Amino acid sequence: MLYLRSTLLFAAALATTLVSHAVPYSMAPNHHGGGGGTPNTASGVYAVTFTISVTSTLPANSIMICKAQIVPSQGGMEGFNYLMNAVPLESAAVAATVSGNTATCALQIPFSWAVSGNQTGVQLSYEIDAVNPVGSLPAVVRTSSQQGISEPYPAGGGTSSLSFSVTF
To answer: How far, in Å, CA of 162 to CA of 46, rounded?
Structure first.
């Protein structure tokens, strides 16, 4: 039993070590998307707007924070390639404006990346947190999130507007 427990602890430590040490993007093997092709530049801005219907009971004076992040799509192999290569990530966060039972927030995520020809967009993730006022614990009292939202690159390096309705 001790041997099995030691082996499991070693495997867990090794897995944590492998995941937590990122390779610099410029040094990552096949760092232009994992699918060949000539590197190009993809750039633009994602303008993300959230309309949040607040149906949960939150502590008085809670603050709502909206966060979003993007990473380049990897030609349908997101999960596998992200474990193998370091990839760029862009993110933004903003405090929401609350009026009655509705909160809204808008943020922009500019980006410019070297990508291969088979990469045509991003994977977007967002998180909305309700946090207590400063000094109150727990700090985060409620979270809602979504991952793996596929979006094409903005046309011609422009702005792509995205809107999400979230029940919180």
So the answer is: 7
DSSP character at residue 35:
S
Q: Which domains does the chain have, with CATH numbers?
A: 29-167 (2.60.40)
- Residue 12, SS3 per DSSP: helix
How long, in residues, is the chain? 168
CB 86 within 8 A of CB 105: no
Reported as a pLDDT band with limits 50, 70 and 90, residue 60 is: confident
pLDDT at position 32:
40
Instruction: State how far the Cα of 92 lies from the Cα of 16, in Å rounded to an integer.
Output: 26
Q: Are 51 and 99 in contact (CB under 8 A)?
A: no
Residue 5 scores a pLDDT above 80: no
Q: How many CA atoms lie within 13 A of 54 on its CB side?
A: 21
Burial of 64 (0-12, 13-18, 19+ CB in 10 A): buried
d(CA 151, CA 154): 9
153 vs 33, residue with greater confidence: 153
Q: How far apart are CA 119 and CA 70, in angstroms?
A: 13
State the Cα torsion 166-45-125-54 to the nearest 10°: -20
